[in-house]
Amino acid sequence: MAVNTEAIGKTYPATTYEVGSEKIREYANAIGADNAVHHDREAAQAAGYRDVVAPPMFCVVYSARAVGAGVLDPEVGINLATMVHGGQRFEWGEPVCAGDVISTEAKVTSISERAGMGFYVFESVSSNQDGDEVVRGTWTNIVRGV
Amino acid sequence: MPAAKLEVGAPIPELRVTPDKYLPHRYAGASGDFNPIHIDPEFAKAVGLPQNILHGLYSMAITARGCAALAGGDPRALKSLEVQFRGMGLPEQEIVVSGKISEVDGHRVAVELLAEQSGNRIIRNARAELELPG
């Protein structure tokens, strides 16, 4: 059985996410990011940020939902039971601070097959309320036994 | 650390983190990823895993922290991070993030990293780009 490549290029509706300072704090605590700029508004402002700033990997909080639409799309046809997250790349732009409204668009960039495994690659592009790009993600999911 | 003081091939300071038993639950809440393989040991065993496993993106976040030390924790310094997830990360085992400088070009520094638990590589072929003060 071969992978179905018809969904390559398919895009998904943008999701929006409003960034809260307590959510940044909760995430920073979970990953052990103890720099005061993630926890304290005054410390963040003293370092030149508008407000409490998110650790870079906070990007998964606001961008994963857009990619999830593709992962779950029947036209993409991923078998979730045998899927693993194989690889991930993020490129960061403007920092994300509390109060930002982040919009994320996702698309299917490639679907291919090697050695009985399907490789499904999605790209997400997230921008803030000023239209500045904040992160670009490349998400590689591997499905065994395609 | 100023980029000019970094040499290609030099190791970066190791970061050691031991996620506790309930870390996957806190990370699930913080990230929004409630896949039961991360938070339900019985479900994880039923699908052939030894126990509930760490979120790959948590291990990637720890890898990102391993780079942040070079920048004094400044979150603006990290420009990109690319990883491959391998093996399975487990709670209650120490994660060791290590790496070395692979390129220095003006303010831009590239670092190659990996994250291991008891010699099991859970993140490999990781590459970060940072922008550091001159």
Terminal residue distance of chain A: 6 Å
Low-confidence stretches of chain A: none
Which CATH-level-2 architecture of chain B? Roll
Low-confidence stretches of chain B: none
- SS-derived structural category of chain A: alpha+beta
Number of strands of chain A: 5
Features:
heterodimer; A: 146 residues; alpha+beta; Thiol Ester Dehydrase, Chain A; 5 strands; B: 134 residues; five-stranded antiparallel β-sheet
Provide structural commentary:
Chain A has 146 residues and is of the alpha+beta class. Chain A has helices at 21-31, 41-46, 59-71; strands at 11-18, 83-92, 101-114, 117-127, 133-144. Chain A has a domain at 11-19 and 55-144: Thiol Ester Dehydrase, Chain A, CATH 3.10.129.10. Helix content of chain A is 21%, strand content 38%. Chain A has a 5-stranded antiparallel β-sheet with strand order 1-3-4-5-2, covered by helices on one side. In chain A, a hairpin with a 2-residue loop joins β3 (101-114) and β4 (117-127). Chain B has 4 helices and 5 strands; from the N terminus they run βααααββββ. The termini of chain B are close together. Chain B has one domain (3-131): Roll (Thiol Ester Dehydrase, Chain A). Chain B has a 5-stranded antiparallel β-sheet, covered by helices on one side. By secondary structure, chain B is of the alpha+beta class. Chain B is elongated and about 50 Å long. Chain B has helices spanning 23-31, 36-39, 41-46, 56-68, and strands spanning 15-17, 78-85, 95-105, 108-117, 120-131. Chains A and B meet through α1, α3 and β2 of A and α1, α4 and β2 of B.
